[in-house]
Every structure is written in structure tokens, then in C-alpha cells.
């Protein structure tokens, strides 16, 4: 009897925290899932909305604008994360040394990510301005024709990618730098003694050792890139046409402009599922990599033994 | 006998007192909470609110928000059992949502109340196009006046379209301001040849609402409309294609980067001398004449929105309404009535607001301060309350028109093909919303 009570005690202590977490975390998600089964406009209370079952999800399958937004989002997230990873990790490898003024340089590099996205959007919009913007002025000074930064679909897509890469490369940089600085010095010293070149050290020692951190970093950035809204809202508002209308913007417009909260909730849920699958895939890959590394280490120990 | 004389005198005094009673007395000391947009007209209105408090003893607290944020806030506020706002300004396309959801007071019961309604209010002086567009619902097509329609709001901060042009450029080249669409389109592309570096006309054209607005601005005068009387989309008829081509011509011959312009950017291009014409809301005129922000101040002339098949300028902007869940409805009506009365309308106009009354536009004092006022008053006689539909599903149709027009402007999509697509998708939206429930079976 007493033993049973002792077993239950930890659960009793945990219960309040679990209850609070469940309400705070799961209730909004449950609310959103429920809303996606409703034909709900903001002038109604949720209880007054009609239940439509899976109709919102079925409608999404035939919604050409949603499909377009979906592909714009995938393309945007894949491109910005690839660029940011290469630039961020590259910068970290470059600045991972103790030189005079390096602290200041590192601080300067992370400034863009500290600026509010709305402000970033406004600043870049001004720089992309067709007549008074910085870029076209420079092109003009060089005797080159001005570029349609935001007024042509392909250029506008490239322009929002550039702004995002500018703002979020520092995020990759700072995490990569932290990962680099926490690498075991013994492995690096051993490689150096064995005569490894700088590039060989990066390729065979530093990057493989950093990989778990890099995967999590890329994952976090990918999740964020799928939800980016403010910068694109200010820069292009999704245009020209639908060329930069990412899913978050489509969801926001569906809820506030088209006043279809149920339909917007269904879109959000699909985005959530997509991100969940992506997260699980990334974690699965990390586990596989770790297991393979552990197997190799064991094999080496046996060889040495 | 003496007793009866005294009593009679007392009754006479009481009656006389009642006859001359202050209609605001009962509400003095009340504090009204109003929700206004961040907009030049409402900035002007806020400047005269002290005068209202002084005259009535009613205090006013203003919650001023960017207009889309204001709409979001109202959407939440109006669904509550007891709201926080006594009086709201609403953007015209909210009329459909709020009236359909039964969230606004029908103003008839206030105008019928002799204790509240000012006999000198003069409803006939209000600009009909504005009242029909913003204030009335329940008649023709549901969102227009008709025999069974009723007023849910009063225009306040309403706008129409007008053509502003650079008098110096027109004089230099012996040009006449355009009166027809043919002349407008000809000048839009001729001016850049005559004045290198200056676009013909600055227009909003950014993807979404802005491109849709710009297209519809030309659709009505060119004889088109979005729906026929049976709600069938006719946006892809000859007039629709002509309107899309007109917009493309204007943008192609306009200032650089025009496809990204919202109204503010288009107005800025005109103010900075990058365009010779500007066809949009009258609300921008005050900015054109302000030398601190405009390089063309004093060099701008105004004429009516050019005519195509017919003369039809836009109607839009804001109105005032009392939410059903307002805590102080009668005092709120007194403020609504005061602000939109002849005196209120004039006071706000003198502070830089947009009048909603013909008498204000004709006022010599206002014309001395803003010389373009009389032209605006003349143009308002042709304000079209039905230049775009005000229906609950308009948001998604509007966005579709806007993104499709943006593709016409930037990706070279054929206007006919583009509008055929819009018409097909619009029909699906209308069908789903139940607009063909009463159509005869095919």
C-alpha cells in the first residue's frame, strides 16, 4: 500500500506542471485543429460556426493559389537555408581565431538578426526603390541599366531571398561559431600533428564534429523560414502576382482579408504537419548519423584492442 | 384663485423650460470611447472634439489605429456581449460584414427620436453617392439603397476619385487636361516623350488590393461592372478588357517601378515630380499642396475623373456607426450627429478633412483655404456608389482580381485570358456563397 503511494508521489508532484503545459501548449493547437473543420468567419463566435468536416482540406487540394504559395514557400525555405548555412558556417570558420578586434567584428556580424523584421522590410524596400534606392543608384553610377528589384516576379523573389539571407545568416554564424569553439581541442591538435591542411581539418574534423549542431541549426532556421511573414509583407506583399506569396502570408490574408478562419486554420495545420515531418526526418537523420559514428568508434576500439 | 394662478404660472415656466431644454444635458459627464483610423480626416476630426465636449459636456476618448488593425480590432470587439466602443469609424467594405452579422445599430430609431434628432441636420445635403455607398444597406443587391433599405452608418471621411495634373507641364506643351479616357491614355504615353524622365500618370498597381482597386477605378467609367443583375460575373466582357488594357498602358507609361506602388507611393511619385498626372482619391490633394512635403505645390490643377462610356468616379473611405453592443448608444448618436452635421462637417473640413456635404464644398471660406474644393463638389455629383460590390465574399474575389491584374502588368498575361480565369473562379466563389440559390435551373 505504502509502496504504491510512494510510486505515485512523483506523478502527483508533476501533475500541476503537466496540466499547465497541456493547457498552454495543447489547447491552442486543439483549437486550431477544431477550427479547421468549421466554416467560420470572424464575425461569428466559434460556437456559431457550421461544422463542415474535411471540406476545408478537400478545397485546399483544388486551390491553385494555395498550391502556388506552397511551392513558393518550399523554394524560398530551401534556397535561403542553403545560402545561410554556407555563408554562416563559412564565416564562423573564418572568424574562429583570436585576433585583435575579432570580438567587435563578431558583434557587428550579428547585428542584422537583432533588428525587427518590419524595420528590415522597410529598409530593404527603400534600398530596392526603383529611382531613389541604393542599388539602382549604384547601378546608375556604374553606367548599368537599373534592375526591376521588386517589380518583376523573378527579381522580386531574388530580392526577398537576399533580404532574408542578410538578416538570418548571423543566426547560423553565431551557432556555428559556438559549436566550433566547443569542439574537443585534442582532435584538432592530433590532426595538426598528423600534418592535416586547413581544408582537410575543416572537411574531415571540424564539419563532421559540428554536424549534430549544424543539423539542429538548419532545422530551426528551416522552421523559421517556413513561417517568415513581416519582411515579405512589407517588401512585396506577395507580389508581383503570386511570385513571393509564401504560405504564412496566404494564411494571414485568408484569415483577415478573406475572413475565412476555418480555411486559414486548415492551411496552418498542413503547414504544421509539413514542419513536423521535416523535424522528425531531421531528428531521424541525426540519430542515424550518431549511431553510425558510435558503430565506427566501437569498430576502431576493437581494431586497436 | 391665487393658488390656481400660481400653479398655472409654474406649469408655463416648466413647459417653456422643457421646450428650450438642452438636448445634451442628460448625457453631460458621459465619457464616450470611439475607435478611429489613423487617417488625415480623422486627425482633423480629433482636433475639433474639444469643441464638442465644450458644447455638450460629453467627454470623448479616442482609440486610433491603422485602418486594417482597426478593422481587426472591431471584428473582435463587435462579437462581444458588451463592447468597449460607443462609436466606430468603419471602412466601407466592412459594411457588408457588420450589417450581415447584425452588429450595427439601425440608425432609424435614433433619427426618429425627437429628443435626439436635430431638426436642422438636413439629410438632403449629404452627398448621395457617399450615403448610398457607405451608409445604407438592405435595398438593391442587398448593399445599396432601395425601398426596404435602411441606414446603418453616416459617411465621414469618405472619398471619391479626381484627376490631379501638373499645370506647368500642361501649359509648357499646350496640353489640355483630359476629359475622356481616350485623351487620358493618349496623354499618359505622350507626356514621357515630351518631358523625358517624367511618367505620364502615377497609379497604384501593387499586387493584391491595390491592383484590383486601380483596375476597378477604370472599369466603371469604361462601362463595365463585376456582376450583372443576376450576380453572374461579367468582368471579362469588352469593358473589362478595355479597363485592364487602360491600366497596363498607364503603368507602362508611368514612373519607374509603378507595379509596386500603393496609393502612398503613387502620390509620392507625383509629389516628387516623377509623374504629370495622378488619378486617385481626393484625400491626397492636401499633401500635393503642402510645400513641406511636395515639390509641385502650387503647380497642380484638378479636373473630374475622365469619362469613358459614362462618368463614374469611385466612392470609398469611412463612415461612422454605433455598434449594437455599445455601452452609451444615445450619447454616441449625439456625437455622430454633431460630427456629420453642417457645422461639424465644415469644422472638420477647415482642419483638412474630407467633407461629406455639398454645402461644405460650396462654402466660400473653405474654397478660399482649399481652392480645389468646388471642383471636388462638382465631381461628387457623379460619384458611383456601385463601382465595386460590397458583399461578404468580396475579400477573396478582390484579392484574385488584384493578383491576376498584377500578372497582366508584370508577366504579360493576356488580359482576356486573365479576366476569363477571374470570372470562372469568381463564379465558383459566388456559387459556394449561395448567390445562385434562386437562379432558375438550367
UniProtKB/TrEMBL annotation, chain A:
Its localization reads: Cell membrane
State the protein's name.
Answer: sn-glycerol-3-phosphate transport system permease protein UgpA
Organism lineage: Bacteria, Pseudomonadati, Pseudomonadota, Alphaproteobacteria, Rhodobacterales
**Bilayer topology annotation:** Multi-pass membrane protein
Q: Which PROSITE patterns match?
A: ABC_TM1
GO CC terms of this entry: plasma membrane
> Keywords, A to Z?
Cell membrane, Membrane, Transmembrane, Transmembrane helix, Transport
Query: Which family does this protein fall into?
Result: Belongs to the binding-protein-dependent transport system permease family.
Q: Does the keyword Transmembrane apply?
A: yes
Every ABC transmembrane type-1 domain range: 70-282
User: Its GO biological process terms?
Assistant: transmembrane transport
Q: Which organism is it from?
A: Jannaschia rubra
Give TM segment ranges.
12-34, 70-95, 107-127, 155-180, 201-223, 261-285
UniProtKB/TrEMBL annotation, chain B:
Task: Give the signal peptide as a residue range, or say none if absent.
Answer: 1-21
Xref: Gene3D superfamilies: Periplasmic binding protein-like II
Q: Which Pfam families match?
A: SBP_bac_1
What are the UniProt keywords, alphabetically?
Signal, Transport
The subcellular localization recorded is: Periplasm
Q: Which domain of life is it from?
A: Bacteria
Q: Do the record's keywords include Signal? A: yes
GO (cellular component) term, any one: periplasmic space
- Which PANTHER family does the UniProt entry name for this protein? ABC TRANSPORTER PERIPLASMIC-BINDING PROTEIN YCJN-RELATED, ARABINOSE-BINDING PROTEIN-RELATED
Family assignment from sequence similarity: Belongs to the bacterial solute-binding protein 1 family.
Name of protein: Putative ABC transporter-binding protein
Amino acid at each position: 500500500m505504502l509502496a504504491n503511494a510512494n510510486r505515485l508521489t512523483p506523478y502527483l508532484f508533476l501533475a500541476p506542471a503537466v496540466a499547465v503545459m497541456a493547457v498552454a501548449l495543447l489547447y491552442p493547437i486543439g483549437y486550431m485543429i477544431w477550427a479547421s473543420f468549421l466554416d467560420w468567419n470572424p464575425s461569428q463566435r466559434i460556437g456559431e460556426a457550421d461544422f463542415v468536416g474535411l471540406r476545408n482540406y478537400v478545397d485546399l487540394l483544388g486551390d491553385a493559389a494555395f498550391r502556388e504559395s506552397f511551392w513558393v514557400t518550399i523554394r524560398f525555405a530551401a534556397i535561403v537555408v542553403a545560402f545561410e548555412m554556407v555563408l554562416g558556417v563559412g564565416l564562423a570558420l573564418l572568424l574562429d581565431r583570436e585576433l585583435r578586434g575579432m570580438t567587435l567584428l563578431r558583434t557587428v556580424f550579428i547585428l542584422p538578426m537583432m533588428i525587427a523584421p518590419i524595420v528590415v522590410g522597410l529598409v530593404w524596400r527603400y534600398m530596392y526603390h526603383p529611382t531613389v534606392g541604393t542599388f539602382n543608384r549604384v547601378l546608375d553610377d556604374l553606367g548599368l541599366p537599373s534592375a526591376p528589384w521588386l517589380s518583376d516576379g523573378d527579381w522580386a523573389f531574388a530580392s526577398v531571398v537576399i533580404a532574408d539571407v542578410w538578416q538570418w545568416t548571423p543566426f547560423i554564424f553565431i551557432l556555428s561559431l559556438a559549436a566550433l569553439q566547443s569542439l574537443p581541442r585534442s582532435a584538432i591538435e592530433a590532426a595538426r600533428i598528423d600534418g592535416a591542411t586547413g581544408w582537410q581539418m575543416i572537411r574531415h574534423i571540424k564539419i563532421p564534429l559540428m554536424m549534430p549542431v549544424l543539423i539542429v541549426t538548419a532545422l530551426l532556421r528551416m522552421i523559421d523560414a517556413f513561417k517568415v511573414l513581416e519582411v515579405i509583407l512589407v517588401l512585396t506583399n506577395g507580389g508581383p502576382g503570386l511570385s513571393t506569396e509564401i504560405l504564412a502570408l496566404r494564411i494571414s490574408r485568408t484569415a483577415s482579408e478573406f475572413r475565412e478562419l476555418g480555411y486559414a486554420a486548415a492551411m496552418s495545420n498542413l503547414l504544421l504537419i509539413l514542419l513536423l515531418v521535416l523535424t522528425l526526418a531531421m531528428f531521424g537523420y541525426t540519430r542515424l548519423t550518431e549511431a553510425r559514428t558510435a558503430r565506427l568508434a566501437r569498430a576502431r576500439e576493437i581494431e586497436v584492442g | 384663485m391665487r393658488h390656481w394662478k400660481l400653479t398655472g404660472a409654474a406649469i408655463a415656466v416648466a413647459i417653456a423650460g422643457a421646450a428650450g431644454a438642452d438636448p445634451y444635458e442628460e448625457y453631460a459627464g458621459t465619457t464616450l470611447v470611439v475607435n478611429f483610423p489613423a487617417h488625415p480626416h480623422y486627425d482633423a476630426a480629433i482636433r475639433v472634439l474639444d469643441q464638442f465636449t465644450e458644447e455638450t459636456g460629453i467627454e470623448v476618448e479616442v482609440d486610433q489605429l491603422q485602418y486594417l488593425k482597426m478593422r481587426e480590432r472591431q471584428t473582435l470587439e463587435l462579437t462581444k456581449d458588451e463592447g468597449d466602443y460607443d462609436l466606430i469609424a468603419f471602412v466601407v467594405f466592412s459594411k457588408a460584414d457588420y450589417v450581415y452579422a447584425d452588429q450595427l445599430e439601425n440608425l432609424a430609431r435614433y433619427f426618429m427620436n425627437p429628443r435626439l434628432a436635430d431638426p436642422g441636420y438636413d439629410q438632403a445635403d449629404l452627398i448621395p453617392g457617399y450615403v448610398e455607398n457607405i451608409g445604407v444597406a438592405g435595398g438593391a443587391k442587398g448593399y445599396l439603397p432601395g425601398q426596404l433599405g435602411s441606414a446603418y452608418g453616416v459617411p465621414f471621411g469618405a472619398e471619391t476619385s479626381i484627376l490631379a495634373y501638373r499645370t506647368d507641364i500642361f501649359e509648357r506643351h499646350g496640353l489640355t487636361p483630359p476629359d475622356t479616357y481616350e485623351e487620358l491614355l493618349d496623354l499618359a504615353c505622350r507626356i514621357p516623350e515630351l518631358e523625358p524622365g517624367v511618367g505620364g500618370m502615377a497609379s497604384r498597381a501593387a499586387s493584391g488590393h491595390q491592383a484590383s482597386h486601380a483596375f476597378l477605378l477604370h472599369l466603371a467609367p469604361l462601362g463595365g461592372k463585376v456582376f450583372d443583375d443576376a450576380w453572374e460575373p461579367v468582368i471579362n466582357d469588352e469593358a473589362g478588357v478595355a479597363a485592364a488594357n487602360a491600366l497596363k498602358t498607364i503603368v507602362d507609361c508611368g514612373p519607374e517601378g509603378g507595379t509596386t506602388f500603393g496609393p502612398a507611393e503613387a502620390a509620392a511619385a507625383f509629389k516628387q515630380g516623377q509623374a504629370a498626372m495622378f488619378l486617385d482619391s481626393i484625400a491626397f490633394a492636401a499633401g500635393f499642396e503642402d510645400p513641406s512635403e511636395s515639390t509641385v505645390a502650387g503647380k497642380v490643377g484638378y479636373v473630374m475623373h475622365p469619362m469613358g462610356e459614362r462618368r463614374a468616379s469611385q466612392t470609398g473611405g469611412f463612415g461612422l456607426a454605433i455598434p449594437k453592443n455599445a455601452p452609451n448608444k444615445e450619447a454616441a448618436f449625439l456625437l455622430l450627429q454633431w460630427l456629420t452635421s453642417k457645422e461639424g462637417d465644415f469644422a472638420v473640413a477647415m482642419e483638412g478633412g474630407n467633407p461629406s456635404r455639398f454645402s461644405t464644398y460650396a462654402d466660400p471660406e473653405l474654397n478660399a483655404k482649399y481652392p480645389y474644393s468646388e471642383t471636388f463638389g462638382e465631381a461628387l455629383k457623379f460619384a458611383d456608389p456601385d463601382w465595386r460590390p460590397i458583399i461578404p465574399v468580396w475579400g477573396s474575389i478582390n484579392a484574385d482580381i488584384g493578383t491576376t491584374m498584377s500578372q497582366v502588368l508584370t508577366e504579360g498575361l493576356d488580359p482576356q485570358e486573365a479576366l476569363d480565369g477571374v470570372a470562372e473562379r469568381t463564379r465558383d466563389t459566388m456559387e459556394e456563397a449561395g448567390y445562385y440559390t434562386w437562379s432558375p435551373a438550367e
